[in-house]
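Lab notebook, bench 4. The sequencing result for the construct came back, and we need a structural model before the next group meeting so we can plan mutations. Quick request posted to the team channel:

Model the 3D structure of this chain.
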Amino acid sequence: MAKRYSRQQIKKLYEKKCYFCGEDNYDLLDAHRIIPGEQGGKYNDHNILVICSNCHRKCHAGVIKIDRKYMSTTGRWILHYWIDGEEKWA
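Done. Here's the predicted structure in token form:
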């Protein structure tokens, strides 16, 4: 029987590394919802970000604050966020 992957696993396999620090150990990667599930956030392209468990904890602790992902005119996703109070666009 073929193995079935969840959306989170597929995203991790596709992205292959943490968005913030570049960690590439699959076992340490998480699929983080920008809008939390309890607020209606879904696991979809505009609401999911692959990050390592360390950066995931920083997001939930408020060290990394994510505004949201924007689709650019070139068709790439751009993330608006803050790390330690410094605004970033990537």
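Helices lie at 7-15, 53-61.
Will bring this to the meeting.
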